[in-house]
Amino acid sequence: MAKQAVLLPMAALALVLGALATIPAGVRSIGVCYGMNGDDLPSASDVVQLYKDNGIDSMRIYSPDTDVLQALSGSGIAVTVGVPNADVGGLASRPSAAAAWVQSYVLAFPAVQFRYIAVGNEVVAGGRVLLPAMRNLDRALSAAGLADDIKVSTAVAIDVVGSSFPPSAGTFAPSAGYMARVARYLQSTGAPLLANLYPYYSYISDPGAVDINYALLAMPAGTVVVQDGGYSYDSLFDAMVDCFYSALENAGAGNVTVVVSESGWPSAGSDAANTTNSQAYSQNLINHVGQGTPKRPGPIEAYIFATFNEDQKLGDDETRRHFGLFNKDRSLAYPIDFVNP
Ligand SMILES: *[C@@H]1O[C@H](CO)[C@@H](O)[C@H](O)[C@H]1NC(C)=O
Ligand SMILES: *[C@@H]1O[C@H](CO)[C@@H](O)[C@H](O)[C@H]1NC(C)=O
């Protein structure tokens, strides 16, 4: 009996591990964007510890900050690293600059688990430099034997999509004429398109037009807010993701996956921006991403914006400074469970 009592917990543990091992490879807990435009933020190593403590297994950063890359070394947290918009032109015009970038920020950090390189964030004007910069980085990664492990992409906002309603009508906007070629390039390399998606901003542009719960991922299950051919939508988030899928299909790049590289809801700065709504959106997003969208069922990879409030961000729109999930003392801004069910 005594022996069994000792063995039982081990058997139970083996069952738990067995169950974990059968989770499809695509399912992962959610990522969080680590923006640093705030005063007195915790150190990079404290932030990495914060991610670990909360079960956050991926991070997006907006520049190849070497303190953060150092802190991520050996952490097991996967990272998406941004090339700041100002640096894209240089990487586009000189292959040697791309090789140097890969050397300084990727090869120099062998214990960092790099996932994507995001070339530019919401670049619209001057989008023509994206493709040559992506190509140069891909060649540098290939030369280093890393082309299969690290995918090069770009992060775009919904404004690259011209027509966005209904979701099946999604096409890239004439003002983002470079996007079709970018999309086909991503298809050729097997990289995803990184999309920053904010139902909040769509909602506040015309608050009377839809139920706020459609924007908050909070409609009762089965509610049909938008019927688009054979697809029923109960969340603006899904409608926006599928709009990107339609635009990719229309560009001849229907095999490209959409990774949601930013999404969140501000907790202050407007009538609809309060802690209740911010908490609801973040938790609903975490709970939702395992399911996928009507067009693409299956897990979505998504990054919540953002780790901290960023009081140094400029602009009249107060909400921009209030996306933080954590306070500066590293406590949660509101209760949240990052590991999706
Ligand atoms: C798209 O994916 C399908 C299924 O994996 C594959 O057969 C097809 O060749 C892919 N098309 C392109 C253009 O990559
Ligand atoms: C947050 O805003 C919603 C309306 O969007 C409102 O119903 C709710 O009462 C507000 N919560 C707080 C705590 O202010």
TrEMBL record:
Alphabetic keyword roster: Glycosidase, Hydrolase, Signal
InterPro entries the record matches: GH (IPR017853), Glyco_hydro_17 (IPR000490), Glyco_hydro_17_plant (IPR044965)
Signal peptide, first to last residue: 1-21
Gene Ontology MF term list: glucan endo-1,3-beta-D-glucosidase activity
Gene Ontology biological process terms in this record: carbohydrate metabolic process
Top-rank taxon, per record: Eukaryota
Cross-referenced Pfam families: Glyco_hydro_17
Family: Belongs to the glycosyl hydrolase 17 family.
Protein name from the UniProt record: Putative O-Glycosyl hydrolase superfamily protein
Species this protein is from: Zea mays
Gene for this chain: LOC103654866
